[in-house]
User: Fold this.
Amino acid sequence: MLRKRIISVIEYLFFLGIGLLLLWLSVRNLDLSAIWKDIQQATYGWLFIALFFALVSHVFRALRWNLLINTLGYKTRLSSTFFAVMIGYLANTAVPRMGEFARCGVLSKKEKIPFNTLFGTVISERIFDLVVLALLIFLVTIFQLGLLGDFMQRNFGPFFESLFTNIYSILIFAGILFLVFGVLIYFVWLFREKIKAHKLYDPLRRFLDGLWNGIKTIKRMPQKGLFLVYTFLIWLFYALMVYLPFFVLPETSQLTFIDALTVLAIGSLGIVAPVPGGIGAYHYIVKVTLTELYQVEANAAMSFATISHAGQTLLNILAGAASYFLIGVFSKKQKPLNE
Assistant:
């Protein structure tokens, strides 16, 4: 147990270090006094509206999650699901990917729903959102092909040229991976009876069955149209979360909604990076996107990234902490729906 904790701490510090390194790379050649001046003089009304839309998107995320959970035959309150979602965002702010476990754990305890079943529905959500993100990246690539083409050539052209000159080493590496994977499958099949006899097999099998049951909920869900509507609204409000803060600074106020979709698509890669709260990764990616694609002045680009990230982080902390308190209060007043 102690060893696992030490490994977890080392892993956390490693990714935090990467985030701080990216943050340093983002600001090392910038005028920090100019960035601070931007932060002081920003028009924060637009940011507050964007954060309100962020909360609305989280409500729709809770509604969409309810559809998946209800498909499995469990009843859930919107308030409980919303609080669990916000607690998940609070956990993600501190520890990457912990939010998925946190929100499932909270809702499982509150509504007496098996954790592995809830976790399966969350995986379904994440897979579907990854598909939407891939589609969004494809669409912004089509809409802004010229800008993105120039950007990729300037920043990644040398890398890909080097990559394809070493194609044989890549094929050899891929072949080794396939061989290792094949050998692993063979040994699992060879010792399948001993594996089934192990004391951990049945608990693991039940956990994986519940997980798979949760993942399959989208296919079995009767309200697929409503699920798609909720998904569209979630991502629409995500886009507004990026677009409205453009008006916080004069240097970014000329950017369009399509530009916001581009920043959302590329900036999301910084949020999903295994860095606590996306710190550093989000700043670096958004700053590079604004400066390289839209020729926004570097100090202003960093100011925008800092303001928008700080706003989202503060919202997650305050709303998550309030949700943790409120779900505790409601737990004392309400009986679980699935007892």
